[in-house]
């Protein structure tokens, strides 16, 4: 078998066999296939696509290019939730302890943020002492004892994805739905989860801008799951506006905690209930959405969800007691943006809010950039709230002096009207 023959076959829009795809992945990870050969095949895939079957073969080959976690010793259903990334997306921090408190087992690997999207790891790392660098045995022990752990991505898992993603980034092959789907699914399946919810963010603050394309990606990932024996559900959720009222690291952890107390913002709370109910049904813990939502409401109302959050953070070394202190989030500088207009607010561009948060220090422009855990934005007013002239719209926070020119960027990202806007939190659910 030769890589040149496989490239030519895909250039001619022919289907590749499992053996040919395995040959490509094994050869590329092993160094026998060069970057320029892999680039040629990836471009042929971007131009001619892959069938569902080929995409499943590619996902499988990538998944087994490194270690695969095995949770069979627990004898339990392992659930996981993955978001394609957005602005103010602190869903995992609130949702995972709710699921664990309801008896589901959550074993999750998360990544850092880059650009305008925040990373779950950065938010958790803002909690002093939180250790996401667990070895496999420590990860398994905490999951076994507490039903929940969130750790950093293991470099031994899916090395093929790391190599291919870096190549796609510089060869114009990022925008390929089969390559996007295999990248996401190979990482999720390698963590050993049986039931996976994929939250595909859609809108100007997400990498999927179009609902139909998001649905196409969602359906493909469900099909991959079926072919590889896993239960997958997809929710396509709104990322036209930031999620919740906070963007940052410490400030988002606090909002997640408030949500676990039953005091979360309406849009964020709805995503928690929607995602939680989908996973409870997928794992056969609830017969329908009504029952699932009731279960979530009860576990929040009883305080069990917040207690599980604290138990989990403490189990991974986090100093939970500091979170209860009023000066835990204590930025040195703040800047209030005052409204010069009146009417119902609409945030037109989530990405602009994410970029301003990044410039304040809450995110990274480059991978090697540091994070200011105190930096962020509080939305004193969110979309569909009525604003009067002189009201505080948004408050900017940072450990460093704030560039007041950032105000212009946020003002350009909003508009006012005499009537409320029709805003959906969840565009579609796919099973």
Automatic annotation (TrEMBL):
Q: Where is the Pyrimidine nucleoside phosphorylase C-terminal domain?
A: 344-417
SUPFAM superfamilies associated with the record: Nucleoside phosphorylase/phosphoribosyltransferase catalytic domain (SSF52418), Nucleoside phosphorylase/phosphoribosyltransferase N-terminal domain (SSF47648), Pyrimidine nucleoside phosphorylase C-terminal domain (SSF54680)
**For this protein, what is the EC number?**
2.4.2.4
One Pfam short name: Glycos_transf_3
**This protein's UniProt keywords:** Glycosyltransferase, Transferase
MF GO annotations: thymidine phosphorylase activity
User: InterPro entries, per this entry?
Assistant: Glycosyl_Trfase_fam3, Glycosyl_Trfase_fam3_N_dom, Glycosyl_Trfase_fam3_N_dom_sf, Nuc_phospho_transferase, PYNP-like_C_sf, PYNP_C, Pyrmidine_PPas_bac/euk, Pyrmidine_PPase_CS
Q: Which family does it belong to?
A: Belongs to the thymidine/pyrimidine-nucleoside phosphorylase family.
Q: Share what the entry says about its subunit structure, partners included.
A: Homodimer.
> What is the protein's name according to its record?
Thymidine phosphorylase
Lineage of origin: Bacteria, Bacillati, Mycoplasmatota, Mycoplasmoidales, Metamycoplasmataceae
